Amino acid sequence: MAAFDFFSIGHSNIPAERFIALLRGAGVNAVADVRSAPYSRHFPWFNGKRLADGLARAGMTYAAHGDTLGGRPRDPSLYRDGVADYEAMAKQPEFVSGIGRLMAEAARRSICLMCAEREPLDCHRCLLVARALAERGRLIGHILHDGTIEPHGKTEQRLLALGGDDADLFVTGQRERLAAAYRRRARAVAYRAKAAGAKSAAEYR
Q1: What pLDDT does 194 receive?
Q2: The total number of structural domains that make up the chain
Q3: What are phi and psi of 136, to 5 degrees?
Q4: CA distance 112 to 133
Q5: Does the residue 1 lie in any domain?
Q6: Which residues of the chain are under the pLDDT cut of 70?
């Protein structure tokens, strides 16, 4: 297995026992919950307190980081046309501080970022948090539900492929193409403030 500084996982509808097994298989001993609200209406075993208790029985720690690293900003200025603006969020002092705390904690524990969405490219844990960690030189592995671990670099390759060959005709350079791909994907999947009352996977990011 490749060495990673962080892992990430989306709980989706996975049974609690399988969730623990996936974490153990990756060598994880700490979960950083980056959901803005650590709650799941349909899968209550992922509610914060219950999850923390289950992880403790498995010898793992739990910490909620949604206040600084969540995908649903409380500040209205961090929305663009009603959609959470990940690029603006990444510049906020609270977010930068939260990333710093994660990196400091990673010196002592093997941490897995956790949110709700199964697919990394549908979730801010990948498009916002993992991106910020990668830009700081950290290696991230996304734990998929079949047990494989996808390096973040390969996830970014999939992100680029989503746009097709002609998605960024006026963008030159790999870095610029990747930034444009992140921006485009975030606009498609980020939390929408105007849809807060609708049933959506984004509800608990």
Answers
A1: 67
A2: 1
A3: -100, 15
A4: 12
A5: no
A6: 1-2, 164-172, 194-205
pLDDT tens sequence across 94-103:
999 999 999 9
% the chain with pLDDT above 90: 84
Alpha helical stretches, state H, 42-195: 48-57, 66-69, 86-89, 93-105, 124, 131-135, 152-162, 174-189
Return the SS3 of 32. Answer: strand
Q: What is the pTM of this model?
A: 0.90
Q: Which domain holds residue 14?
A: 6-204
Q: HSE-up of 104 (CA within 13 Å, CB side)?
A: 6
Q: Which residue has the tokens 């485009």?
A: 184
Would you state the pLDDT for residue 3? 87
- Per-residue b or e along 76-113, where b marks 16 or more CB atoms closer than 10 Å to that residue's CB: eebbeeebbbbeebeeeeebeebbeebbeebeeebbbb
In angstroms, how far apart are the furthest CA atoms of the chain? 53
Q: Which residues contact 194 (CB under 8 A, 6 or more apart)?
A: 82
